[in-house]
Every structure is written in structure tokens, then in C-alpha cells.
Inverse folding.
């Protein structure tokens, strides 16, 4: 009747079709989740604020970051990449973003956290635009699923200002 190769091909094709349908259902089920993450960031201290030798402004901040991102996790979530950015305007650019801290959250149990740290990455402006500058702190996250599309969102926190004088 049919050879072994023909039967193996039919079995593998059927198995891959079922796997594809299950992956599509898993991806579509993520659309039913309506996450409601919360976050608060407080600037505890301006550690130092100086002008570099090349004329660029540089600042070091101590941050108090608390967040509850547990609602981002579903049974299809592999991990969540999260980062905090300072965002401000200058005459040359309508949006400047400087990453201050980042992390990978591997499980729902780790998604509720409180940390007090200095900025992980150097906060440098190319020029002398930081003195007295008003800025926003934005917590961004990228949800990486086991299958399906990755999605991202953010929480913007306003009302922060840098000092007018160097320290």
C-alpha cells in the first residue's frame, strides 16, 4: 500500500499542524490578559552632578524603585525585560532617553520588587543641557512569551528636576 516514508511524512505533517494550532491558541490566549502593573520611582539623592572635561554634563542619582509587575505574567510568559529611563527635551531633540537601570524578571514570584540603587548606567548629556532640567522617569517593559508576539508598554512618572548648580 503505502511505504514507510509516506506514512512517516503524514505523521510528522499532522504532528506539526497540531503543534502550530496549539501555539496559535497559546498566543491568542495572551490577548485575554489585561495587565495592571504599578510602579513608583523616587530620586533619593543626587550623588554628584558635574561637567566632564569634554563639556558634557553627567549626573549620578540614587533611586528607590518599587514595582508590581505580576499581572504581566501568564502561563505563556517566559520572562519580562524591564528598564528605567530618564526622558527629557533639549533644543536639538524633542526626546532624549537615558537608560538608568535594567533587569530581567524570570518568574512571577520575582515581579514584585523594591530596590534602592544608584543608576546602573552613566547619565550623560552630550552638551550642557542637564542643569535645572525637568525630566520624566519612565519604566518600560517588554514581555517575552514562550510562543507568539512580544509586547511592550510603559509607565511615565513626571515631576523630577535636576539641580541648577554642579556638585
Amino acid at each position: 500500500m503505502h511505504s514507510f516514508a509516506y506514512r512517516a511524512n503524514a505523521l510528522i505533517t499532522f504532528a506539526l499542524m497540531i503543534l502550530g494550532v496549539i501555539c496559535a491558541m497559546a498566543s491568542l490566549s495572551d490577548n485575554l490578559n489585561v495587565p495592571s502593573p504599578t510602579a513608583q520611582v523616587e530620586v533619593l539623592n543626587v550623588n554628584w552632578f558635574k561637567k566632564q572635561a569634554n563639556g558634557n554634563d553627567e549626573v549620578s542619582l540614587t533611586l528607590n524603585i518599587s514595582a508590581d509587575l505580576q499581572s504581566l505574567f501568564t502561563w505563556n510568559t517566559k520572562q519580562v525585560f524591564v528598564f528605567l529611563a530618564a526622558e527629557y527635551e533639549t533644543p536639538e531633540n524633542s526626546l532624549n532617553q537615558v537608560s538608568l537601570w535594567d533587569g530581567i524578571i524570570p518568574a512571577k514570584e520575582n515581579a514584585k520588587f523594591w530596590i534602592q540603587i544608584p543608576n546602573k548606567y552613566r547619565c550623560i548629556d552630550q552638551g550642557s543641557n542637564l542643569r535645572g532640567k525637568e525630566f520624566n522617569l519612565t519604566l518600560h517593559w517588554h514581555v517575552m512569551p514562550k510562543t507568539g508576539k512580544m509586547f511592550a508598554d510603559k509607565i511615565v512618572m513626571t515631576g523630577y528636576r535636576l539641580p541648577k548648580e554642579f556638585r
Summary: The two ends are 86 Å apart (CA to CA). The chain has a mean pLDDT of 90.
